[in-house]
Structure formats: C-alpha cells, structure tokens
C-alpha cells in the first residue's frame, strides 16, 4: 500500500494516526487536508512526521550528544550509522544536526535510544534530552549571481556549477539532479524562484530572485549555494 493510500484510508476511516518521519519527496505527495499536521521537531526541519486526526504533541524527542571532542568528530554519517546499528529503522530518525550535536527521533523509540545508544565510532557518549523547538540550525551558504539566456535547467545548472551544458545534460540523464527533491530527467525544465536544485557532488542551491535583466535581455539569477 502506498503512502497516499494509507493516508486516504485513515482519512476515510477517521482514524488518529501518527506516521513516522517522511522525506521531502514523500511530503510532496501528501494530500491537502485540514486534518493533517506535519512536524519535524523544530522550525527548519527537513524530515517531518505526519499526524492525522491528532496533534503532534509528544511525538518527537530531541537528544543532544556529549562526547570528548578530542576523540570524536560528529558527522551526519557516523551519527546515523551508529543509530541504525541498533536496528532502528531510518524512518524513525528525523533530522541530524552535527554542528548543534543534536538529532531527532520518534517518541516511540526514545526509550531504546536512552538505554542503548552509548557509542559513536567506539567513543563513549552521553545523551541529554532537550527542547528541539529551540534549535536554530546555522545554515552556511554563499550568495552568488549568474547570468543566463533562459531558465532552462541545463542553462541554470551549467552557470551555477561553471561547467558545460553538455556535461549537465549527462548529469540529467544519469538522474543526478533533483529539483525540489524530485529527480528531473528533462533539460528543458523551467526553473523558478524558490526552487531547490540539488546536484550530486556539487551540493544544493536555492534560487532567490530572477527579476533583473541585463541590457541584452538576459536573466540575472541571485541564488545561494549551501556549504
């Protein structure tokens, strides 16, 4: 049964349901309904739980990791890997923010985390439960500008990555480019303001403004590259 079918069945049956964390791709498929609440535990969350016919209260727990910095560098990969080594499913884990030393999980597995999560990369850690709503992730980005003849995907990506359109078209065919979290397979796709463009090995970009034009009528793009 697909996610949409599960949601529709719960709506039809008027059941109170708490889904685990959804990816941005899955969230984009959720139907509009005043019975649905989406929450990831803090304001800028990417992965979010879906609550149907119920509130999001007590559905997510946030933990802060404490460890000796001399022996352990916290990274998304080693935090996630250590959690999943406890046989915890990926959709029970929300966002992981290494710089803030925090991660989010469903409340259903919080006790297991408290009891079993003791090491990362063989370094002993301790956990502190905190109010995730107070977390303000520090997104680092560069503000940049590019000039393109049109807002075709291949034009925009070529300028942002300083490469050729031919190479960009190869990336598109290899399904290495996502727009708003979905794979794009057509170079002619039109990019618009607020679009999020993710390129494998090149990072994530957000298109902020496309309203300016040069004297020759080309489009001036103001965008951010996350670093």
TrEMBL record:
SMART domains: S4 (SM00363). Gene3D superfamilies: 3.30.70.330, RNA-binding S4 domain. SUPFAM superfamilies: Alpha-L RNA-binding motif. GO terms for molecular function: RNA binding. Keywords: RNA-binding. Residues 151-211 form the RNA-binding S4 domain. The keyword Lyase does not apply. It comes from the Bacteria. PANTHER family: MITOCHONDRIAL TRANSCRIPTION RESCUE FACTOR 1 (PTHR13633:SF3). This is RNA-binding S4 domain-containing protein. It comes from Candidatus Xianfuyuplasma coldseepsis. The lineage of its organism: Bacteria, Bacillati, Mycoplasmatota, Mollicutes, Candidatus Izemoplasmatales.
